[in-house]
Amino acid sequence: MDASSSRWHEITPSSFAHEQAALRYVRDLLPDRTPYQAWSNFYFISDQGHVREVDLLVAAPTGLFLIEIKNFRGRLSNDGALWTHKNRTFDNPLPLADLKAKELKTLLGRAASKDRGIKIPFLRGCIFLAEPQMQCDLDEGQRAHLYVPDDARSADKLRRLGADLLLGPVRHAPPQPEFLRALPRLLQKVGIHRTRRSVMVGPWQIEPSPYDSGPTWQDHHATREDLPGAYRRIRVYHYERQADEESRESVRHAAQREFLATQGIEHPGLLVPRELLQHELGPALVIEQHRNAKRLDHFMADDGAALDLPQRLGLVRQLAEAVGYAHDRRLVHRALSPRAVIVEPGPGGWAEPRLRVGEWQSAARGLSSTHTTHRVEVTTHAGRHVEAAAAAYLAPEFTQDADGTVAIDVFGLGSTAYLILTGKAPASSRVELAERLTTVDGLHPAEVVESIPSDIDDLVFEATRPRVTERIPDVEFFLGLLDDALGASAQPDETVVDPWDAQAGTELPDGYKVKRVLGTGATARAFLVERDGHHSVLKVGRTAEAEERLGDEAVVLEGLRHDHLVVLKRGVFALGSRHAIEIDYAGEQTLARLLRDEGAQLPDQLQRFGDQLLDAVGYLEAHEVFHRDIKPDNLGVRRHPKRGPALVLFDFSLAGAATTDIAAGTRGYRDPFLGTARRPTYDRAAELYAVAVTLHEMASLELPTWGVDGTDPQFVDEVTISSEIFDAGLREPLTAFFRTALHRDADSRFPTAGAMRQAWNRVFTAMDEQGPARTSHTPTDDPEEQRDEAAAAATASTALDAAGLSLRAVAVAQRLGADTVGELVAIPTRALWRARGLSRATRLELVKRASEWRRTLPVSESAPPAPSVDASAQSGLDTLAARLLPPATRRGADQRTITRSLLGLPDENGALPSTRWPSLTELGAAHGLTRARISQLTQKRRLEWSSDATLGEIRDEIAGTLRGLNRVAAASELVEQLLISRGCDREEDPERRRACAYAVLRAVVEADSNLEEPLFATRRHHDRVLVALQVGDDESYDTPNDAELLDMTVALADEAVRLAGSDPLPTPVAVVRALEAIARRHDLVPGEQRLVQLAAAATGTVLANARLELYPRDLDPIRALRLSQAGAGVPPEGLAPEALVRRVTARFPGLNGFPDGPDLARMLRDASFDLRWDGHRLRPMTTAAASSTSLSHTSAGGMQAQAQPAAEGPDARLAYALRHGGVRVVTFRRSRWPATRAHVSALAEVDAVDASAAFVEALRAVARERKIASFDVVLRADAPDADSRARTNLQLVVGEAWARLDDAWSGADVLVLDALTPFGRYPGGMALLDRGLDAARRGGRNRGPRTVILLCAAQDEHEAPRIGTQAVGLETSEEWVIAPSSWSRATTTVA
């Protein structure tokens, strides 16, 4: 075929001689006749948006072929799927060629979709190794679809391009003639283009041909004309062909996620994107790396043989330290493998290789990390972004939507270490890896290289265990084992040339002996050392620039001497080939580890630690020093046998940072309002902001946050504080303190550390000034006298909040598991003496009160005793209930059925009725009888029951119980007392036992009502029945009458519902005070415990605990886990699920709905507790950077993961309103309307109402009623040119339409309204809407809906909700929910 032939299409002339020669060889092979055709050097864009360059496309009778041309001179070999040529390793190019072929065939098929009869043939990807003298030493399995010139040296090993492919015998059905004739037109329709020589991405000029690619991205080399020698790697995330705006937004989000996940993290071992640029092909990441960098697997294939064991272990340490640093920053890689690691020449060139971890597209950052467990939120669909070469190194749980804990990276670290130590991959595929792990339960590098020490072999094995619970828990632990192994193998007299590489036991210059490696940061490595019998810490600089940072730190520390600051013992000095500083040891444990192990701090220790921290910061303030990175990880806890624990602030590595560097520090603790025109530089307010966040974390284990949906804090009015988790006695004063300390306006915060310290101590003074939660008061205002009186009156069942203990002591007792006086005295005195985290005064108070109560209270005293009943002579409630039914006769069959219903007993089939205590009207409706007939039948039963002596005994028993309960109770309380005193003879099912008790109670009450002097009065309140004692003739004149008692109980019930619906839940003192105010209005004030119990029991929807707290019966389990702190302080051996649930129900009795095993673990993670399920128990998931032995890892420009909001997310906020009533206004982008409507409807379990359609239908109905001849009359009256009379008439019709809708919607429990335009356009619409919203805010009163959700479409979902030109009135920020983009991608699951 001649170069000028019409069948040879040179789309782009080649610039390379070897490629020109290869194309010329192929052209000379091809006959210049039909059906032979060829196209060379073009590119197309795949459906996924990838720019695909093609060397040659050939159509021949033997098929259609996409040919990639490679020119390798010399020997070509392989190790698995890695090819090696002249000391350069790369991937087998065939998979990429095959992928291009598949993508091009798909596009050709679409182009031919309208051409009948054209069938696209199979398009084969092939590799043409064009150099004739190449020596092929590839394994047999790597030779598929490789072709050489027909006369090539390797023609005996590989197939020939001419004789075996293009000109060979036709072995399959040849391409159809119709297809071959249409092929030029189809390619033109697909869009094949001239190969571009360069493409500009921002200021960078990238090579159009990518040197690497993944499922959703391509990597290119890039240079700049204006900066000779500058080099970057550009990763382009490609838009799909014909992508709509939402798809493009998804691609932008993926690139943005990779960019943001690592922003602010500075570490030589991490490879992070520096810029995010926009390009027509897609968003592009600019990554700074060495021009000659190699992938780790390629490096090991090229240069691994020259590495000795110490060098290999050094690479393993580099990798572990980099990953550990990321984990300290709450960043988990999730796809760690050699594919994600590059190797660059270090300061000494390739003799000192430096590893850097990249490929963060599947990473999980601390999106849920407000909790001190440092949990992270995973990136969904992570596998889509991971290149296939990584598969053989990934943890088995990678494909199971792993939860983002560090264990997944530990496996990747171990499997990558296997390659570093052996030079071999652990498996060729993910399937092979799974089979191997099934057989050997972990990887043993010593099986490949026998010289690997056994402890190193064990380290890799333990890191690559397939079961997460058996695997090394975190990278810190891995590094500790690595140090132990290196220390054990080191020779005692070994001289370390470089102190950076020192291990435990190493002797350093100047008499220092390394005890252990504490950690490695971006600029230094810290060692715990011993010298002259004293321990201290050496910080050794990493580089010359880092040594300057050490110098800055030394200068800052030099003049500082304070009990709560780390002390500089020796300034910068030469340590062998490095420079170092020596500081004292801050303690074995950091505050971060203490919080993880013990939970939120008790009031005494919280006050002490806060005071110490503010004292230290005040000292720094006086010396004009900023620490710049105050957080629990940088606070050591020193323990003194007499003075107790004390905080020590360490790591002053950022103290020398420029004040203009506002990105220095840790995100979450860094003031988000820096960098504005008013505050362009770091200032004192920013330092105190970090202190306030640290104090908040000490009190709650959570970080305060701004907004719930990622909104920039600049646009959030108020910080979200975890008030609900604070100890009850501190809740109000602490919340007020943090409102000031974290105010968005720095001028409104505490001006100095001294002022903040005074305010901090006032919080605890306010706590001490609170009296007990009692309803009876002495004339004195002295809290001590009030407590003494309360202690003297306490019984074993008295709640500790009301028993006369200080709130400090109450918090300690509750942490020890005691909520009542009886539970406290059961705790051994030695346990009170040994309790941690309390002052001597609080300890003495607890011991003294407990000893007094042991002397004065009977040991067995509990609740008031039930009336004495001879158990041997009484019948069980199930036996009595059966006697209450009339005999089963033909005539009495209906009466027996009606009586069952009256008493709430199971029907003949054993099914329990839905109503325990039906009214006569409800009975009549259920049985099709009039109320009068039901009254007759009930009266007949009353006469029968009045003569039953046993019921008479129970009547007296109930009267006695009511007298012990202040003469009024809910029926449910009397039922529980009957079950205790009478029980059942045979029935064991709890619900059926309760039904029998209700039946007997109702029979007693009905029979009593028939007597001349009845004892009981009843009242219904919603679905609850209340019972009160009537005043007898022989009782005193001041005995409260039944009407007053029932009125008070109804009012208490309503108040209890309000209190339990509060967010945060009210404290016991607040509960007692609110209920006491209600009771005093009726001149009836029971004791505080009875007051709270009665209020809760009268509702049916509220529960009370021994602490005198009120909470919803349907309290969200995740919220209950969070409030009870059930997941904090779990011992290393873990807890059984039932034991952990008992922690919750001890605080919140009566709650149900807690799952078992892995589902409970997931629920705990949603509550921000990192516990893993090992098949039997829930165990803590340890994390790195847990002790003060670790070096702080924050560097200039560093950022911490965004904390989880203390408030709930959009779904949870909607769910809360659906459960408890209220208003939610959801704003969303118009393009996401269908998905948002579907998501909210599914969550609410009701269909959204199209308000526009409903309004039009109501208009039509009114028009029909008014006999308007045609609806067109209404429409014309709505026209702009309608006359005034028509408009007046229209307003009448519209008003009636609104009234119809008001009637229709008022009966709804949950109302979801969509298409809201009529409300804003027509008179009366907003008034109707406001009435509905007002009713929902008041629990559905005045016949309104209990919950209203409005769906407001907007151009920008962050705009305040509006309906047309009318703003939707919001009472609180909680009512506004911004629909997240995830709603448009996820399917709602309704629990």
TrEMBL record:
It comes from the Bacteria. It is an enzyme of class 2 (transferase). It holds the Pfam family NERD. Its EC number is 2.7.11.1. Keywords: ATP-binding, Kinase, Nucleotide-binding, Transferase. Residues 14-127 form the NERD domain. Residues 205-486, 512-761 form the Protein kinase domain. GO terms for molecular function: kinase activity. ATP binds at K539. Belongs to the protein kinase superfamily. NEK Ser/Thr protein kinase family. NIMA subfamily. NCBIfam families: BREX_PglW. This is non-specific serine/threonine protein kinase. It comes from Pseudonocardia zijingensis.
